[in-house]
Design a protein that fits this description.
The structure is a homodimer.
Chain A lengths: L3 E5 L12 H11 L4 E5 L7 H6 L7 E4 L2 E4 L1 H11 L8 H30 L7 H23 L11 H10 L12 H11 L2 H17 L3
Parallel strand pairs in A: 1-2
Antiparallel strand pairs in A: 1-3, 3-4
Helix pairs in contact in A: 1-3, 1-6, 1-8, 4-5, 4-6, 6-7
Chain lengths: ~220, ~220
């Protein structure tokens, strides 16, 4: 039996791979684990059955036999722990790769989520225009630090790891903002992630859901 | 040799245990691992030597022999993996506890950080008074979901785990806001965490730094 993940039946990002199933699909492709996808509609996501799987009513969930998981970071970690290819064998290098997983989701993503909230939830507010540059500057602070640490390396700490997978996934949320272009090594880092065959397979799979849903 | 963590020489929270060394101290106490603390001043934190340890120039860092780690979530996980007491033995229960670790830091904390930013960085802005209730309502959405999931259980999934440790740590940021009181089971959950002997030892240790620094 393959594990089953959930994804949006109708992707709100129009197939740009910004929904959180993308990182899980990518990790599954990196480790060569076949998987099934159960698409959920927004009305499915209001049902008790969905909330039993996910305490915040979101996607993705991950089911493998008796195991039910939520949180894309935790699902990626679960896969990385059970398969070769996403975490180094050396104990210290492994711990550092895990640190980058947490860094992506708890230090780099929060200011990026603030920008998304500022646009989606407060874009019509009278303060929006004046406030947005402050939010963007808080992202710049973090990107500059990340850019300095990455330097001219290909990946954050040695070989590609689950830390890079999550970090590239977080940074991709900025693709349409132009902010990454201010840090050429970060833009190249994201492009390097997106060029991986496993990324491309995962991206195509989530895009196919959107294309089918929109009748394209 | 005991591991060494870094903490603020002068705690900006006046010893309330909201700096991110608190969760690491708590985890160290839970597993019975003695540790050393190196206090860093705000000027130390501007030095290249500190940035070599922490890519975002923050605390805590964790050093144990050749291993240097950052990100409090990753440090707690590192301790939980190497010592008994913070992750269940059963593989599925362990994966779920790790999911709660990620949930604390990537689903529950971000809206709470938004509120902190709204107060600290935008408290003097003309939109502050009108905007704060929107930010608070986004926290309420998440707290309600978490409260529903916790129900009348003591901990999020069976025995106390590193997931609870991080979740209690995140929720404690709301202690002064009164928001937790709207969800009595969450307030009781936080109190249950704070009553653990390991929490109390960790809290006392970080408070002693503040008391000594302030000459009290």
């Amino acid at each position: 039996m393959s594990p089953t993940i959930t994804a949006f039946a109708q992707s709100p990002d129009r197939g740009r791979g910004l929904a959180r199933d993308m990182q899980v699909r990518w990790a599954l492709e990196e480790v060569g684990q076949p998987y099934d996808v159960r698409l959920v509609s927004f009305s499915d996501m209001k049902e008790t059955a969905h909330w039993a799987l996910h305490p915040f009513g979101q996607i993705p969930t991950y089911q493998d036999g008796d195991l039910v998981l939520f949180e894309s970071g935790a699902i990626v970690f679960h896969l990385a722990e059970r398969h070769a290819g996403l975490l180094p064998d050396d104990a210290n290098a492994r711990a550092r790769a895990i640190a980058w997983m947490f860094a992506a989701l708890s230090s780099v993503e929060p200011p990026i989520l603030e920008l998304a909230n500022a646009r989606l939830l407060e874009g019509d507010k009278p303060w929006s225009k004046e406030r947005l540059p402050l939010v963007v500057d808080r992202i710049r602070d973090r990107l500059k630090q990340l850019s300095n640490r990455l330097g001219d390396a290909d990946w954050l700490d040695g070989e590609f790891s689950a830390g890079d997978l999550l970090m590239v996934g977080v940074l991709r949320r900025l693709s349409s903002s132009g902010l990454l272009d201010e840090y050429p090594n970060l833009a190249a880092y994201v492009a390097r992630g997106e060029a991986r065959p496993a990324f491309r397979r995962a991206f195509a799979a989530q895009l196919a859901v959107f294309t089918a849903a929109s009748g394209g």
